Structures are given as C-alpha cells and as structure tokens.
Amino acid sequence: MKGSFKNIINCEKPVLVDFHAEWCGPCKAQGSIINEVAKETGSKVRIIKIDIDKNPKLSQQYQIRSVPTIVLFKDGKLLWKQSGVHSKQQLHNIINQYS
C-alpha cells in the first residue's frame, strides 16, 4: 500500500485523504459529506479513504491520532491536516485554496 499511496499523493492534482475507522460514528457522517464533495468537485481533486485499522503504518507515518482526520496532499506534500468532522463548505474551501 505504501508505494501506491506515495504514487497517489505525488500528483499535481490535490488529493484529499479521509483517514477513518469502521467503528467511528463521526467517520460515517464525514464519509457521506466526502461522497457529496467528490460528486461536486469531479476531476478537480482526487479523494481517497484510508481505514486506519487496515493501514496502521500509514496512520503512524502521518501521525493520525484521532478519526476522522482529513489530509490534503499536492505534489507529494502535506498541505493541510485537521481532525474532526468538516462541513461540505469547509472541504470545498480547503480544496479551492490549494488547487
């Protein structure tokens, strides 16, 4: 996973990563918001979801301490990271700021 994750985040298009867990209630709410954002942004941004329980090394590498945590990458660089549930508007603002 690590090699392919590096390839995914190492592109010119911003990549929004949702670090989540199956057992996390707020993650489910965030997941549906992210799905809406994905439909609305189309090809402007790539959105992926990473289950922290299935990818513990990745979670450690990016110091994910709580879920959900949203991270934005561009050209392989971490540009923005914040824990908690974010509204659709907040996510659009972050994507627009870095794209």
Automatic annotation (TrEMBL):
An annotated GO BP: cell redox homeostasis
Annotated signal sequence range: none
Disulfide bonds: C24-C27
Residue span(s) of domain Thioredoxin: 1-99
Site (Deprotonates C-terminal active site Cys): D18
Stored PROSITE patterns: THIOREDOXIN_1, THIOREDOXIN_2
One annotated Gene Ontology cellular component of this protein: cytosol
NCBIfam families documented for this protein: thioredoxin (TIGR01068)
UniProt keyword annotation of Iron present: no
Active-site residues from the entry: C24, C27
Keywords: Disulfide bond, Electron transport, Redox-active center, Transport
Domain of life per record: Bacteria
Gene3D superfamilies named among the record's database cross-references: Glutaredoxin
Site (Contributes to redox potential value): G25, P26
Entry-linked InterPro entries: Thioredoxin (IPR005746), Thioredoxin-like_sf (IPR036249), Thioredoxin_CS (IPR017937), Thioredoxin_domain (IPR013766)
Transmembrane stretches, start-end: none
Name listed for the protein in its UniProt record: Thioredoxin
GO MF term set: protein-disulfide reductase activity
Family affiliation: Belongs to the thioredoxin family.
